[in-house]
Design a protein that fits this description.
- The chain is 37% helix and 19% strand.
- The relative contact order is 0.26.
- It is of the alpha+beta class.
- The radius of gyration is 16 Å and the shape is globular.
Amino acid sequence: MYLVDRTAAVLKPTETFLQWLQKTDEEMPELTLSQLRANCTVFLLPLFDEPEEVVAYFNERFEEIFEAELSSWTIDDHAWPELNLDLFWQFFELEVHDTVLDLEESDLENMPVFEA
């Protein structure tokens, strides 16, 4: 077991996100907020001393994170709301964890999510 030199942040959708999602795709199966929050995106960030620093980090990078989260549900960006910081925090809550352990001995592999 190894301590990883990162902070983990779990981005959890809110009821506001769920309402947007239900309006966006009429064929979307009925989801509850707890179902939606059961499998969230986890971000590994630099080590931070305070949770407020994590929030500030997300504030700086909210647009790329917002786009990634919305595109995981619909790639039609015309269906997306106007991306702004206030709406980002209406759509998501952040759960911060400062202890990240790796149970595997193999090296971590970095794989790009999006090709530029």
